[in-house]
Amino acid sequence: MTGRDTASFTVLQRLLHWLMAIAILAMLFVGVGMVATIRPQYIPLVATHKTLGILILLLALIRIGVRLSSGTPPLPADLPPPMRLGAQLSHYALYALMIAMPLIGWAMLSAAGYPIVLLGGIRLPAILPPSTGLHALLWTAHQYLAFAFFALILLHLAAALFHALIRRDGVFQSMTSGSPPKERAPAE
Amino acid sequence: MSQPSSGAKLASFAVIAVVVAVLAGAFAYTAGWFSPESLTSARLVQAFAPAGGPALGHRRNHAKGICFTGEFDANGNGAALSRAQVFVTGKYPVVGRFNFSTTDPNAPDATSRARGMGLQITTPDGDVWRSAMINPPFFPVATPDAFYALLQASASKDPDAMKNFAAAHPEIQAFGAWAASAPWTGSYAEEPYNGLNAFIFTDPTGAEHAVRWSLRPQATPQPISPDDLAKLGPDHLEQEIADRVAKGPQSWTLVLTVANPGDPTADPSKAWPADRKSVEAGTLVVQQVEAERDGPCRDINYDPTVLPDGIKVSDDPFPAARSAAYAKSFDLRTSPAEEAAYPHSAAATGAQP
Predict the structure, then answer these.
(1) What's the gap between Cα B67 and its chain centre?
(2) What is the pTM (predicted TM-score) of this model?
(3) From B87's CA, which of A14, A36, A134, B324 has a CA 20 to 30 Å away?
(4) Do residues A135 and A76 make contact, with C-beta atoms less than 8 angstroms apart?
(5) Which own/partner contact pairs does B53-57 have at CB distance under 8 Å and 24+ positions apart?
């Protein structure tokens, strides 16, 4: 990962981050919601889930490209090494899930022999031949990784708020306002 | 960088904990973890299971069946109702399954009143149309919740359970009358297969039509008593259709029935009046029959919401409920543990390692 001298992510990076934050959270809620219902909304929820998944896959690919070219602002020099390692590993895991989850879902539907139709009637090709064995494996992976993804997002959110409220080290602002927090008077 | 006081720090930790807890709670709520009484696909599928548990590796209902392949010969008449390619004059490959309503894949034929057909038609544009139809002319109950209640009443040890159910769901009487009076046949080829659910067809101009469909047999039904059917053996239907198709293809006419304004589309227990406009859209020709174990229908989920462009669901609540339940049944029966209980034959696994 290339470091940068500036204190914050680029406008494009911040835009991608917040767009994907909304999309991925919506995705996870739609996912657990759709498998819990047999009501008429089941059908639009499933269609939305597939469509959002492909959108997230595309955005994730763009985002990784942007990250490789733009780099990231450096973490605060005084960040303890375990937190630094945690930050790096959790971000690798988040990127991996953004790419893997849509692909697993797509492959899972392919292996089950379902036609893959997105909102707007967009049809995607199968990326695996029909195979009940693969379907079972991928379906299980999709389910467990979804919960892992949500847990990781909660951890990410908690860590972001920890930087914002407790460490007040500018890490949170690097993804929001784009400028480091102003020095505050001691009285504040 | 200013550091917060220890009191402010504590408050900040509390804020973080609350934010995380609220989000996790909303997630759990959405997943239905706080509402174990709500009807899910898992509960619906579970309700089918007999006392001894489901037959592993098999469909959770309509568990006994046999595969077929053939073609759908569209005559072009359906194209006025739907822009789907399946209605454009031409021949399209089909993979289907004859079956009857039971949770036991070895149930004797004469033990079940409702026979069915799963059907998949594929068109060159890549669209797939799946349907699962049965021979009654209407569904026993009006809503998925009533259907779940029916399953529970059927399984109940309370001697008044069915009586109480019928009192709460009077629509079941029509089904009871059909089951008591409609003739049985000794052949899958002599049965009609009715879609029962209403779907919305979109024609080439964009206009929409509420439609139900049926496959009407071209073979003449030969009535038989259930007792005489039982005497023909427990697996007569599968043997008969295999022999019959081996001698010559069997055909059904696909009839599309169009609702008048005001006809009920949300309630498959209510048949539409017989005078409604109907269109014969083509012929289903069954050309080959294969055992399910290694057959092409085994791993198809005949989910009635797999529809081509030009057909979509209506306000009928059943297709969504069926889609959710069929997916659950498919996920269960195709899991490695269950597939081991219903393995492919040695010849088939040898040919496809």
Answers:
(1) 15
(2) 0.94
(3) B324
(4) no
(5) B54/B103, B54/B332, B55/B103, B55/B104, B55/B105, B55/B342, B56/B333, B56/B337, B56/B338, B56/B341, B56/B342, B57/B333, B57/B338, B57/B339, B57/B340, B57/B341, B57/B342
Triad B311, B314, B318: Cα angle to 5° = 110
- Helix, strand, or coil here: A81? helix
Q: pLDDT > 70: what percent of chain B? A: 97
In the structure encoding, which two tokens stand for residue B179, read together?
């089951």
Q: Where are the domains of chain A?
A: 11-175
- Dig out the tokens for B271 from the structure: 């048949």
Nearest chain A residue to B148, by CA: A38
Q: Tell whether the model's pLDDT for residue B91 goes beyond 80.
A: yes
pLDDT tens sequence across B256-303: 999 999 999 999 999 999 999 999 999 999 999 999 999 999 999 999
Q: How close A39 gets to chain B, by Cα (Å)?
A: 6
The two most distant CA atoms of chain B are separated, in Å, by 91
Q: Minimal CA–CA distance to A45: which of A61, A63, A33?
A: A33
For residue A186, name the pLDDT band (cuts at 50, 70, 90).
very low
Q: Say whether A130 and B299 touch across the interface (CB within 8 A).
A: yes
Using a CB-CB cut-off of 8 Å, the residues of chain A touching B336 are 133, 136
For A38, the closest of B26, B127, B320 (CB atoms) is: B320
Give me the architecture of the A11-175 domain, per CATH.
Answer: Up-down Bundle (1.20)
Whether B207 shows a pLDDT value over 80: the answer reads yes
Reference A159, options A145, A171, A177, A146; nearest CA is: A171
Task: Give chain B positions within 8 Å (CB) of A36.
Answer: 30-32, 38, 40
Asked which of A76-80, A112-116, B67-71, B247-251 is least confident by mean pLDDT, the reply is A76-80
Which stretches of B25-163 are assigned E, i.e. beta strand? 64-74, 90-100, 115-122, 128-134
Residue in A32, A154, A184 nearest the CB of B23: A154
Distance between CA atoms of residues B62 and B301, nearest Å = 12
Contacts with A, B 107-146, CB within 8 Å: 126-128, 144
For A46-72, how does the pLDDT look when each residue is reduced to its tens digit (9 = 90+)?
A: 999 999 999 999 999 999 999 999 999
Q: Which domains does chain B have, with CATH numbers?
A: 41-341 (2.40.180.10)
Cβ–Cβ pairs < 8 A, chains A and B = 114
| Partners of residue A161 in chain B, C-beta under 8 Å | 12, 15-16, 19
3-state secondary structure of A56: helix
What is the per-residue pLDDT across B50-86, written as a single tens digit (0 to 9) for each? 989 999 999 999 999 999 999 999 999 999 999 999 9
